[in-house]
Description:
Layout: H1 10-26, H2 35-48, H3 54-65, H4 71-77
Amino acid sequence: MPKKGITGHDEWVITEALATALVALEQLEPTQQSRQQMDDIRKLLAANCQPGTLNLHLAQAKCRLNPHGDRAAIYREYGFEDWEV
């Protein structure tokens, strides 16, 4: 069976890249952020995600960008109260 797309999992790669880009932009100083670009990335990300998984992708991206951060606090920030991380 031929692989779908270029990598075989293009949609997942794009979703993770969009989530990581959005979280990285959110961590910039407000004067350095492009609100329009961030809004567009959020729309693209929401369109690419399975229903109900947007905040999960964002939490995972923030954990990747902050490997020494408090994972439980990051997940709580995105609305996951009762998860073991």
